Amino acid sequence: MPEFDVYTQIPLAGLRPGAAAAVHLTDASVTMSAGTYEIASLHIWNLGDVPTGNFFMKEDATLIVNRSFYMGGCDSQITLAGKIYVNDVTWMYGSGSAVTLSGELISSGKSEIQFMMASSSMLITGLIDFSNTTGSPLTLGGYYTTTTVAAGAVINAKYSLQLKTSAYQNFYIDGGQVNVHRFYGQRVKNYLGSLANYHMKSGTFSHFGWEAELTGKDHDNTGVVVFNQSGGLVVMNQGGGTFNLTGQKNANDGGKVCTLGVGIYNLSGGRLVLHRGISYGVVGQYAENADAVRIDEAVAYSGYAGGQFNFTGGELQTESLSIHLDNKGGTLIVGLDDAQGATLFGAEGMTYSQSAASSLALDFIALDQYDKLDYTGALSSVFFEDGTHIRITLADGFSPENGEQFDIVQAALLSGNADMFNIWINGVLTSDWTAEILGSTTLRLKAPGIPEPAFSAGLIVLLALVRGMRRR
Questions:
Q1: Which residues of 15-45 are buried (b: 16+ CB within 10 A; e: fewer)?
Q2: How confident is the model at residue 459, as a pLDDT?
């Protein structure tokens, strides 16, 4: 295939290669203007320490790349405002580069997209659509690199989204929308102490598949991956399975054992919805043969947990928890939105504690249909601090009658001073409802009594006086 080595700024429209050609531009700055271009592959980079390897694609341009699409270099400027269709590997790499994607990057076939840069940034306000791929991930890598999914941006990754880093990687969702079918958080290889950070500030992150792990691990060494949610909506495991925060080890047939990684989730704002709960520890591991070829079977190893969940604000909505949860300022919502009288089950041996600044939120639909918290497994416990909040929503027009009782929490061991709880009904703090703890196992709420109307009491007194006068 013909190769083009260009050392001056040349509009790509002037090249017009055919669909069978490859374009290899070294130390070039390329501007793509109006038109549609189909090529086999496009490689744009610089070899020296000069700010070249630039690529400027305007809104009215369309590029079809049937094979590889590489670009980058030292201090490169990459602006993608048009439409790009890729069918194979797409790489953007370099040092000190700035990428702006306001157009559309659409893949098919076995396309894989990797942004592997050093000390670089990428701003996404357009569309990255990998919904038609057949098993390739969307990988954001490098070191000291920041990616921002801003307002108006949409990322659809059918296979997976992962951060692959050798040092510090930051991925911000700030008004954009990210949709993935698999989520691993991070895969690290051959690097010690690597750190990947997800920052959910606003927008949505939706995981539709089965597999979801927040884990710092791969073949050889330890890494840390952190998901910081301060706003927005995160929905995990809509296809089933639990959301696992874990460190894992891998082994090959030669018996090589790898060190641990750590997965950390910090929830301080927004809402996290877990369709199948959350857990720590190793659920399954990948084995590798002597040739380091990955196979699909999960090999069971146990005892290698490396997860943390910190709940200091925002809302956590789920029906099950397989972790020790300390609620230090957030709201625990029992059940999913479509549930009618849900029960949140705490796994055996797990604990739940709720501080004075925290809330437990439940829906009441009927006397025999209301949300509950169940920690009745062996060695499980629940603790409520003085001044904590119980928030009840009376749904579907339900209005409890005089003295009706609701056992909202049951545990193997339940402790707290129920007289010190703040009870909210439909968003209003009330002193009419009462709470009590029975036998250190049950938290019961009681609806208020219905007082006798004032005029009725007065009538009774008047009748008594009349009767007394008659007797005289």
A1: bebeeebbbbbbbbbbbbeeeebebbbbbbb
A2: 44
Q: Are 447 and 402 a contacting pair, CB within 8 Å?
A: yes
Rounding to the nearest 10 degrees, give the CA dihedral for residues 123, 126, 132, 134: -10
Which of 264, 388, 399, 376 is CA-nearest to residue 330? 388
Q: Characterize the bridge pairing of strands 213-215 and 320-321.
A: unpaired
Cα gap 142→74, rounded to integer Å = 14
At residue 268, the pLDDT reads 97
- Using DSSP, state whether 461 is helix, strand or coil: helix
What's the rounded Cα separation, in Å, for the pair 171 and 157? 15
Quick one: pLDDT at residue 11?
42
Say how far apart CA 41 and CA 89 lie, in whole Å. Answer: 10
Candidates 358, 466, 351; CA nearest to 415 is: 351
Side-by-side strand order, sheet with 372-375: 320-321, 343-346, 372-375, 405-411, 442-446, 434-438
Write down the pLDDT at residue 167.
61
Give Cβ neighbours of residue 296 (< 8 Å, ≥ 6 apart): none
Residues of the chain with pLDDT under 70: 1-28, 44-53, 72-73, 93-94, 109-112, 116, 134-137, 141-142, 162-167, 185-195, 210-211, 215-223, 246-261, 281-306, 450-472
d(CA 31, CA 100): 14
pLDDT for res 310: 93
| Residue type at position 321 | L
Radius of gyration from C-alpha coordinates of the chain: 29
* Under 8 Å between Cβ of 364 and 395: yes
| Tokens 């909040």 belong to residue | 389
